[in-house]
Amino acid sequence: MGWRPYWTILRRRWLVIALILALDLVVTGFLFARSYRHVGYQACSSLFVADSSAPSIVSTSSSSVSTAELLAGESAANFFADDILDVAQSNKVADYVSRKLSQRSLPNASSSDLRGSIGGARHDRTVGLCVSSPQSQTAVAASQVLVGAMSTNRATFIGKALARRTYVGVISTPTVSRVSSRHELVNAALRLFLGALVAVGLALLWDALDPRIRDEQDVEQTTGVPVLASFR
Amino acid sequence: MSRVTTTPAMLLARVRLLAPEARTLLLSFPRDQAGTSLLGQRLQASASSIVEKVNVLDAATFLANDGGNSTETVSGHRQPSAPVAASAQVTLVLGAGVLDDATTLLTVPQVDGVLLLIEPGKTLRDDVEQARTEIKRAGGRLLGAVLQAN
Questions:
Q1: Chain A residues lying within 8 Å of B118, measured CB to CB
Q2: Residue B61 pLDDT > 90, yes or no?
Q3: What is the mean pLDDT of residues B43-66?
């Protein structure tokens, strides 16, 4: 069939492609600008989360504790760790950290700077939290405040009941490392490429589903008779 | 749609090449829509180099007056006249939609050929297929398609 028919379709549906590409460009630009603000340094720390009311596989030696109870305790701790991770990345925590840092007059420590700069991951009951900032001292200071917020002051964010139910201990204090901007550039390029693919795919799908006659070739395929004339 | 447009005279010339014996032609969109009469007027005005005279009639008038030159056989089916010189007269019957207008559909077996008008970007593919089926079922002869963009 060749590529010409597809090129004809893309020319015919140029408006659909242009609109999607424009939207993709705007969204990619916004996300890139937002993430690029935090490029520079990253300070990471680790927390241990446990269910303080459940028996632990590690600590218990009593044979009266069933396997089901032990596993239930482990599962609950995993859920609590997820909660700690989610709350740590919230705007409320970012604003709290910003307020604590405001007294120290650190650069890039405002609420708008810190929102979106806190990230992390959970592995079993270990939660890794990282704060990104263009300034290394701000990253370290913010990470220290964050660790305190999620451990000793966690009741402010997760509620007193859940704070009593959980145990959060600090495994490692913040360590800072440099972060390159290549990751954000690759992300932006991928977003643009995927947006282009979506635009082309949608244009082809739109054309295939269009029930109207499009051109001479379409007429001849549908009717089996030649097109004798075309008038404007 | 092709960027190359055709003159009305070229259309008639191509019809004459396809069906030299055709004297009456039905022009109609699959569904009733504007544009048929305008095309008929253009064909009437500019076809003098191909035929001596072009008559333009609507379907009801054509059926009432039986304006075709064809002769009726014993079985009742119409037979086209013998091929004539380029100075012959052509009658264009303007239909109001093969699928919408009963008069237009009744005209189909009475004419020597049908030209289906299609507007790219507006005429539905299903309507074109259905019109082709109806023309065939009515015993008509679909000579070709004419694209008309408004």
A1: 213, 219
A2: no
A3: 72
Residue type at position B135: I
Token digits of residue A164: 């009593």
Categorize the per-residue pLDDT at A193 as very low, low, confident or very high, splitting at 50, 70 and 90: very high
A215 and B CB contact within 8 Å:
yes
Q: What is the pTM of this model?
A: 0.56
How far is A37 from A181, CA to CA, in rounded Å? 10
Q: Which residues pair with A45 in a beta bridge?
A: A129
Q: DSSP 3-state assignment of B94? A: strand
Amino acid at A42: Q
Spell out which residues of chain B touch residue A208, defining contact as CB-CB under 8 Å.
Answer: none
A186 and chain B in contact, CB less than 8 A: no
A4 touches chain B (CB under 8 A): no
pLDDT of A198 reads 96
Say yes or no for a CB contact (<8 Å) between B120 and A211: no
Q: Which residue of B has its CA nearest to A225?
A: B144
> Taking CB atoms and an 8 Å limit, are A231 and B149 in contact across chains?
yes
Determine contact, residues A139/A132, Cβ cutoff 8 Å. Answer: yes
Enter the ipTM.
0.77
Measured CB to CB, residues of chain B less than 8 Å from chain A are 1-2, 4-6, 8, 10-11, 14-15, 18, 39, 42, 115-116, 118-126, 128-129, 132, 142-149
The proportion of chain B whose per-residue pLDDT surpasses 70, expressed as a percent, equals 75
